[in-house]
Amino acid sequence: MGNDFDYNDRYGVKPANRWRPIAAVILSMGIIWLLWAGLHHARPEITSRLISFTVTNDRETVIRFEATRRDSNREITCTLVARDIDKLIVGQVDDVIPAGKGYIDRSTAIPTRNLAATASVLRCL
Questions:
Q1: In terms of domains, do 51 and 99 share one?
Q2: DSSP structure string for 39-101
Q3: Are residues 77 and 106 in the same domain?
Q4: What confidence score (pLDDT) does residue 18 get?
Q5: 2-27 residue pLDDT tens
Q6: Average pLDDT over residues 109-123
Q7: Which of 31, 50, 102, 116 is buried deepest, with most CB atoms within 10 A?
Q8: What is the model's pTM?
Q9: Looking at residue 10, what is its pLDDT?
Q10: What is the tens place of the pLDDT at every residue in 46-98?
Q11: Cβ of 106: how many Cβ atoms within 10 Å?
């Protein structure tokens, strides 16, 4: 009688480390995606920042903001909003900035229906 008897063959037990190559592929794909997402979103096409705002009267708020675009040949539209003390939007305007410089420092008046308490740049596209 030989020593060729193996319980793994008899009961169909397979090696337990078959999942490791699959896990390594999934892990490497995840790391590549994470690096791509971080680098892609680190330098957006358009950025905007509120500098200041002034409530001139109960029907107008003047907002000063800056916008930076990577492609200076691109026209951008910034949505500016004014809100009252209850955080309701009392004024909104889309400020279209024509193609030109990459850095823009701009003041724009927002007509309001009531006295505004704050103003902000909602988005620039």
A1: yes
A2: HHHHS-SEEEEEEEEEEEETTEEEEEEEEEES-TT--EEEEEEEE-TTS-EEEEEEEEE-S--
A3: yes
A4: 81
A5: 578 888 777 877 777 888 999 999 99
A6: 97
A7: 116
A8: 0.74
A9: 78
A10: 999 999 999 999 999 999 999 999 999 999 999 999 999 999 999 999 999 99
A11: 15
Q: Is the C-alpha dihedral spanning 33, 38, 39, 41 positive or negative?
A: positive
Count Cβ atoms within 10 A of the Cβ of residue 69 and give its class: 0-12 exposed, 13-18 middle, 19 or more buried. buried
Q: At 26, list the tokens.
A: 């999934």
Whether residue 50 sits in one domain with residue 38 = no
Q: Which amino acid is at 84?
A: D
Residue with tokens 């004014």: 82
Model confidence at 1: pLDDT above 80? no
The token duo for 97 is 């900035």
The tokens for 93 are: 């305007």
Question: Structural domain of residue 82, as residue ranges?
Answer: 46-124
Question: Residue 2: inside a domain, yes or no?
Answer: no
Do 35 and 51 share a domain, yes or no? no
Q: Which residues pair with 66 in a beta bridge?
A: 49, 105
